[in-house]
Structures are given as C-alpha cells and as structure tokens.
Amino acid sequence: MFETSIKDDTMKDHTIGHCPMACEKLNGFMSRVGDRWSVLVILALDGMGMMRFNELKRHLGITQRMLSRTLRELERDGLVRRTVHDTVPPRVDYELTALGESFGDPIRYLGDWGLKHLEQIDAARADFDAKHPD
C-alpha cells in the first residue's frame, strides 16, 4: 500500500491510505488536475509561458466551453493566473502561478513517461481489442 506521511496544521499527521480527511481533500484536487485537459493546459503553459485564451484553444484543440471550465478550475486551485487587460477588444492572458510551476515538474514527468511508452501502450491496446471484440 502507498503510504506517505502528510503533516500540516490542519491535518496533523496522516498517512495516505489510512487518512480519510487527507484523502478526501486530495481526491477533490486529483480528480481535477488528473483529467486530460487540466494536464494538457498545464503542460502548454509550462512549455509556452503566458498564453491567450484563443492561443490555448488552437494549441490544444479543445472546445471553448471545456477550456473555460478547465482554466476556471485551475485558477480556483491556485495553479493558473488570469490577467485581464483593459483594452478593446479585451485581452486575457493565462500563466502558471508559482504553485502551478511547481506542479509542472511532476506533470512533465508524466507526459515524458507517456511519450516514452506510447508504442507499448498502443500494442497493449491492440492486443486487448483483438482478444475482446465489441
């Protein structure tokens, strides 16, 4: 079982795997940042720096609704900063906060792992699909 000790003022000492309070809080965060679009937005902002909404939309191939929703949740979690410039037309920039930048390292590692193992993943999927036709 995965066990990592967490200590802070609100949760005292908990171990993941045996900690209802810490796991509940972590679950909410992980469900958001573990989704496909959040990971891709963080990777894009980490690699490209500050980007405008439509730049992100084109870069990721995401719908406007999904991007708006994803950015709003990442901003709520303190990972993304939204800056509105008082111009006509309005200009809105998005960038990672310091917290978001610190999250970039594990996300990059996950992305690198995925790229490194794409062929194996594709082969496993093809093998599974061949054995389990729908």
Summarize this entry quickly.
The chain is an alpha+beta fold and 134 residues long.
Describe the structure.
Helices cover 60% and strands 16% of the residues. By secondary structure, the protein is α+β, with helices and mostly antiparallel strands. Helix 2 crosses helix 5. The chain is globular, with a radius of gyration of 18 Å.
Instruction: Give the radius of gyration.
Output: 18 Å
Give helix and strand order, one letter per element, not per position.
EEHHEHHEEHH
**Largest sheet data:** 3 strands, antiparallel
Principal-axes shape call? globular
Q: Give the termini separation.
A: 34 Å
**Class by SSE composition:** alpha+beta
Number of helices in the DSSP assignment: 6
Mean pLDDT: 84
Percentage of residues in DSSP E strands: 15-25%
The largest sheet has its strands arranged as 3-5-4
| Fraction in helix | 55-70%
The residue ranges in which pLDDT falls below 50 over 5 or more consecutive positions are: 1-14
Q: Would you report the number of β strands?
A: 5
